[in-house]
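Task: complex structure prediction.
Instruction: return structure tokens for all chains below.
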Amino acid sequence: MSGAQVGLAEALEITSTPDGWQTRVPEGYDVFGIPHGGFLAALGAQAVLHGSGAPDIFSITIHYLKKGAVGPILWSTSEVGGSRRFTSVRAEGRQGDRVVLAVNALVGDRSSITGPTWTATSPWEPSEARLSPVAGTPEANVPGPAIGERLGVRIDEATLGFVKGEQGSEARMRATVEVDAPNQLTALIACDITPPAVWNALGLSGWVPTVELTAHVRGRPAPGPLGIDVVTRNVAEGFLEEDAEVRDVEGRLIVQSRQLARYSEGPFREREPLQST
Amino acid sequence: MSGAQVGLAEALEITSTPDGWQTRVPEGYDVFGIPHGGFLAALGAQAVLHGSGAPDIFSITIHYLKKGAVGPILWSTSEVGGSRRFTSVRAEGRQGDRVVLAVNALVGDRSSITGPTWTATSPWEPSEARLSPVAGTPEANVPGPAIGERLGVRIDEATLGFVKGEQGSEARMRATVEVDAPNQLTALIACDITPPAVWNALGLSGWVPTVELTAHVRGRPAPGPLGIDVVTRNVAEGFLEEDAEVRDVEGRLIVQSRQLARYSEGPFREREPLQST
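Output:
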């Protein structure tokens, strides 16, 4: 497994070309050959932000249409409509002649929007956990992807039962990421950075490919590590949802996401990407 | 308040015109003058299903861009891309020259997709609750919208504290809807049919306009009433999320939705739609 040679800031760069906005999936920003879903969401966010000129994402939805590859993504963006505060922007990400990603976002400027704070949840407190990189867990037979190393992902060992072959626990995973200056793009990567939480409940039983991910960006993060709390509550009829909350070091909710993923039983098969490493 | 004169099946009808697909928001499918958000989601679902010819929605995202009105909506639809199982379809809903809705969905055929069932939640059991139409609650000073009558909405009285001026409870609302033959469109309406759950926690303190709603359709409902469980966990920086689960009479998850809504403190103001009735 190669490390991520390209730094995060550079990996998120976007350039204007005569054919549209261009981003790139560098080596090391994949998970066993497939571009990382959260990283693709961040690239989609770059496309809609640059296409619109707005500073903030409020909501972003990504349809993962085809398996992408390491290499360039060309984005065409357009504004669909909007109101005083919110503009609906779409972006299609192509690799070659294939549309691999369809992105739709509400963007605008959150600096003038305020309101009260109330929460029914008790945010996870990373300082009370034993944190470990997946790849650094001695029992792990699943290496962590390089992007996890790049973001300094540390997973709460209490939520790493699956790497020891355990199952029957809560379908939950908690982690922290350390980046120099977290922003909405970093937080979007973070919402999809852990292994599937369902593995702690049902065992390491399959590839869980994301079909769709919608993330609400709820605030601008303070400097410091991000805390991530991921949970799956329903597996049914070939699908599951995975919900994530990403909070900044002050405990403020920065990203709340939900993804729809395919889920089918059975051990890894030859054709599954995870097996091919 | 006028009742919904047009039946639900008729209200959901869609017709092909030279300019695109056309639906209609009839009188009585509004909430105090504004077309009902869940009903608009169902109309958007009709547009993407008819535009693509697919039988099933897997995921649908609606951006509520401008306040709509009772009357026709003209839809332009197009396919963005897809894979073997999933097609990404977009639809823009116009009233006059205004784009009021941007819809993006993953559609396909779920009949060949299967998988195991596992859940971490205890579905709400309507038979153990005292159910009441909002409008029929003696203490209620907020009349229920006509669409609630049309769908036979009955709300768990344990989650109706806000109509008595109470607050400080869980931001939760539970209800049932009775329709002759529930389907994915009915279930999409149902996921947004209750008053805002946040009112039970923070009081009847404002209009809570939906900005974006994403719903995952997880199955085809069995005949019988639908049960709805709605919760808000985070109010922050001018927004809240509202999560809904819609289950069929067998307890199967049919729709799981999350919406992003604006939320600001303070009593109703003159300009708020709820005040204008």
